[in-house]
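Format notes (please read before filing issues)

Several people have asked whether sequences and C-alpha cells are stored in separate files. They are not. Every record keeps both together, in the order shown below: the sequence lines, then the C-alpha cell lines. Line labels are part of the format and must not be stripped during preprocessing.
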Amino acid sequence: MNGKTIFITGGNDGIGLATARLFAKNGANVAIMGRRAQRNEVAKAEIEALGVDCVAVTGDVSKEADIQRALEQCMEGLGRLDYAFNNAGIEQVPKALTEQTEDEYDTIFNVNVKGVWLCMKHQIPYMLQSGGGVIVNDSSASGLHGTQMMPLYSATKHAVLGLTKSVALEYATQGIRVNAVCPGAVSTPGYEKFVARDEAMKLAIERAHPMGRVGCSDEVASAVLYLCRDATFTTGSWILTDGGRMAQ
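Then the structure lines:
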C-alpha cells in the first residue's frame, strides 16, 4: 500500500482511528475527517508517528460542502485517493417508537445515510482519476436484523447496505469496488458511553454475542483492510464482525 491513500470519516477515534493506524502500518497515507478539531490533531500526530503522511480535516459528513472541502484537502495534501472508509455514524438512544421525534429521525438519517451517500458521490470521481479504488461503508449487524427500541438506527444501517449494493453495481466495470462491514457491538468510546448508564444492558449485549464479549476496533479494521487489499473479486457485499451473533 506504499504511496496509496485512504480517506476515513470519523477517523479520529474508535474504529476509524484503528483503521487509520492499520493502513498506516501497511504504508498508506491517511486523510481523516471528524467533527472535533482538537481530537483530529491528536489522531494526526499518532498516524504520522507511524511514518506516513496524514491530512486531518474538521467537518460534518451531513454537509456536502464539508465533504467536498475534506476531499479537496486530501487530494492537495496526498495527491490521490485509492481507498475510502465511510465510517462516521451515530447511535440512537433506545426508546419507545411513540416517544421518538422528527428531529431524532432527521439527525440520524442525515449522518448515517446522507453522509455515506454524499461521501461516495464525491469520492468516486477522484478514485476514477487514480484508475479505480475501493470504498468500504460502515453498516452494522443491525443492518441485517431489526433492533427493538432503535428502529431509526436499524433503518439507517439497512439503507447503507442498499447504497453499497447499488453503487457497487453501477461502478463494477470501472475499477471501483464497494463493500461494507457489519460490526456487532464494538468497544469504542461511543459504545462505552452508551452502556455506561445501564450495567444490566451492557451485560445483556455481551451475552447476546456467542463469543461472550463485544468486539474491539482493531478487529473491524482488519476486515476493512481485507476488503480493500485482498478481496479483489468482492463487490456489493459485506463482512459480519459480530462474534457469531447473526449465526443464532
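For reference, the curators noted about this record: Residues 102-129 form the longest helix (28 residues). The domain at 5-184+217-247 is CATH 3.40.50.720 (Rossmann fold).
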